[in-house]
Amino acid sequence: MMAGRFAFASLAALLALASAEVNIVERPMKLYSSVSPKLRIQTDASAFAGILEQNIELSFTPSLKRSSYNLTIASDTVLTLTLLPGKKWANPSTTDGMTLYLTELKFHGGENLLGSAKSVATVIPTPTVTRNENNVIYMTGTSKLVIKGTNFVQKEIELLFDPPLEASKDYILSVKNATTMVLTRMSASKWRSEPGPLKLRRINTGAGALRVDPKYGGIVVAEVQANLGAHGVTVESTPDERFYQNTGELVILGTGFNVTHNTLRFANGIRGKGVNYTTVEHTAELIRMKLAQGSKWRANPANLPGPLVLLAVDAGGGFVPVGPTEAKKGRTVATIFETPMVNQKTKDVYQTHSHELWITGQGFTRQTYTTAITFNPPLKTTGDDPDASMLVYNRTHIKLTLLEGKKWIEGDLSGKKALQVMKINTGAGSYDLKGVTIANVKSDADDHPSGVTVTRSTQTLYQTAAIKKLVITGSGFTEDTTLTFSPALEKNVDYTQHFVDETKLILSLRKKKHWRYEGGALMVKKIDVGKRTNGVVQHVIEFFTGNNNAIAVGSGGQGIQVANILQDPQIEESERIMFATHTKRLVIRGTGFALEGTELTLTPTKRAAYEIESLEMTEIVLLLNEGHSWADVTKEGDSKHVYVTKIDTGAGEVILEDEGVIVAKVEADIDDNNCDDSCEWALDGVCDDGSGKGRYWWDDDYGGFYGYDDDYYGYGYYYEGDDDFLAPVCDAGTDCTDCGGPKTSAEKVECDNSCQWSNDGFCDDTRTSGLCDAGTDCHDCGPVGASNYTTWDDDGWWDDDDNYWDIDDTFEYAEGRGEKKDGPDSGSGGSLFVAILEGLVYLVGAVICGGGTYFAVKLYKGQGQVAFSPLSTEDPDVEMTGRANVPITPDVTFTN
Length: 896
Known about the structure:
Layout: H1 2-19, E1 29-32, E2 38-42, E3 56-61, E4 69-73, E5 78-83, E6 98-107, E7 118-124, E8 128-129, E9 136-138, E10 144-150, E11 158-162, E12 171-177, E13 180-185, E14 196-204, E15 210-211, E16 219-225, E17 234-235, E18 242-244, E19 249-255, E20 263-266, E21 277-282, E22 286-291, E23 306-314, E24 319-321, E25 331-337, E26 341-342, E27 348-350, E28 356-362, E29 372-376, E30 388-394, E31 397-402, E32 416-425, E33 431-442, E34 453-454, E35 460-462, E36 470-475, E37 482-486, E38 495-501, E39 504-509, E40 520-528, H2 535-545, E41 550-552, E42 560-566, E43 570-571, E44 577-579, E45 585-591, E46 599-603, E47 610-615, E48 619-624, E49 639-648, E50 654-655, E51 661-667, H3 736-739, H4 778-781, H5 829-850, H6 852-860, E52 878-879, E53 886-887
Parallel strand pairs: 1-7, 9-16, 18-25, 27-33, 35-42, 44-51
Antiparallel strand pairs: 2-5, 3-6, 4-5, 6-7, 8-10, 10-13, 11-14, 12-13, 14-15, 14-16, 17-19, 19-22, 20-23, 21-22, 23-24, 23-25, 26-28, 28-31, 29-32, 30-31, 32-33, 34-36, 36-39, 37-40, 38-39, 40-41, 40-42, 43-45, 45-48, 46-49, 47-48, 49-50, 49-51, 52-53
Helix pairs in contact: 1-5
């Protein structure tokens, strides 16, 4: 009786299970198409208790035949599919792979228990590597190693070499396409410490570390040899050699050159043998080059002045890089300047009444280099008692402003006389222009017979700031004088006017009004002094003006400058993180900065603590002086803000509202984050230690990056396809001045998706692959400190039975348990339980057959109610197998 009840209960439980929907946990693990041995399929509740493997039917898309795998019930919630030799999970056509869906799950040939198709794996093509024993490279003489094969991917690729090479320390990996990857050796590293083969032991393209030719301990990708004598070439950096684009004879200094022939590779693709230059002398320590007729050292003027970079020299033993090639630094053998030119103009200007003159052309320089011009007749723009001020705005425009009391050309002029530019020096020496006319100077016309004049003035005022009043001087002024300005201003609307005497008027700007709506010269075009009591004077005025009291001023009626209006200066607020002394430069951005000179008042930073290193109309760079600090912050964790409280761009000191504008947040120099300028390329204006934001370190100190975009000749770099990545060339913390101090120890707390690989279903920040900065792959990783990502390289989800894998199937319990998982043939309690359960299944079948009559009789007599108890199930979160019970926890790794 009891046996019958138990059999019926078991049958009822099986029938109930067969009719319930099964929910598959979608954790699509990555599989190599032909070598990944096992696929795990997990349910969220007990589904396979009491079920035999042969009674389970699975259907997949794309089709995966039952003859391609063996199926094993690993637990009540886990199925394991083992790929058979010579079979494939799928045939993905691209390296991105394809998703394998489980579309049907049936027990005993019944109905499909899945509500919808479930993704159970991503199948990617199996990578292969081509053996290349004949590829000879040199320990440090070779910069690039090309590895061929198949199914390489752009990301998630890892390599393991013998002898060991560490990515980002010994080399930088760039995958060019599915069949080619290039390793660039870092400057301080070697391919091997001694001659011998370099083997690739393992490759991981996303589905685990796959062994490559394990029988021989890896596949040979190169034969490393000792550097030959010709690999001892060195080149000296000589940036102080300066040439214009189309002139000069260049001497390259160094050691190890071939005394008869050397082949040179430059960053901008210029070539020798008379194509762009001819080498006229070779010695062991120098190479002398002469520019070919009609050629240029560098072609793109937008990036000039800029360095001429020598990347490599072939002295007979192959090309030897002369600088860190992974960042394309090379050696600067000269600084090239744009060939200067001045455009000819024949505009008429007047000896004193014309106040400014523009020179246009090309190749003009400012700040780092100074432009000097020789005029005919002589016009002084520098030194003591100059005649005019000269301001270089950019590479194409220069403004000359005549100073008060000076003339464009001295002496009496009859007719007009040409003002010419004879020579110009933009930094690479005097360049003869052979006399280019920039203006024709005429004599000032006589003052108007009325006796009413306006005196030219270059007083400076801000657009709106009422720091100063506008003073107009001249002669013949009256109480009723009205001035006509350019740009237009209206008396008693834009300004009020105070009559001092016949020679002086004082104008005050009204609130919310502007002298000009942009910076520039304020001109008086006409003056109306009203009715005069002096009949003679009135008669003269009416004679010359036709009863119109408005008198044109300035020669030819062009007007007289009475003020130079400066744009109101504005400071842009910023909380840029800086260190008290480690950070050497403070960049302040805003508008209205005067190129002629701008002064700031900071707090708490004293003026003696810094110098103005560079000045643009929208940016000022301050350089910290030795022995000073931006703020007195000594305790770790403390910080102070730096404010700009006053600014003076030439028209007086403007006091900013409240405490001023915040331009930086200064933190203490942390003891374990010290930095210095020991990097060979420190102090070049570019961060070279890799601490720049993002995955690339663009070098923009010359207007471009290390890839200097002036490949005018179309030959490009001699390194195959190395333009798609750059790298730091110095150790972290060794380029302190350019990088702004060391990184803080705290991780960023931002959470955005600025990572270029965000939203791809895999966490790509520093907590996993490190492809992006922490917190920039928020969708896939979650915010810093509250991560929601999972890793897929946990041993518990790999059954690595063949020799492609290092890990194995036996792994320890979670922390606190010391037992090993039981093997399938062990005599453990787990094995005994499975054996008993299997016996009960057979017993149930026998009881059903043998006791069918008994149940029929009972039902015939009306005794249809049979009591039974449901079969208890184990905790669905615990895997019950012939091995040990191990919690299925996706983010916990079990390994031995």
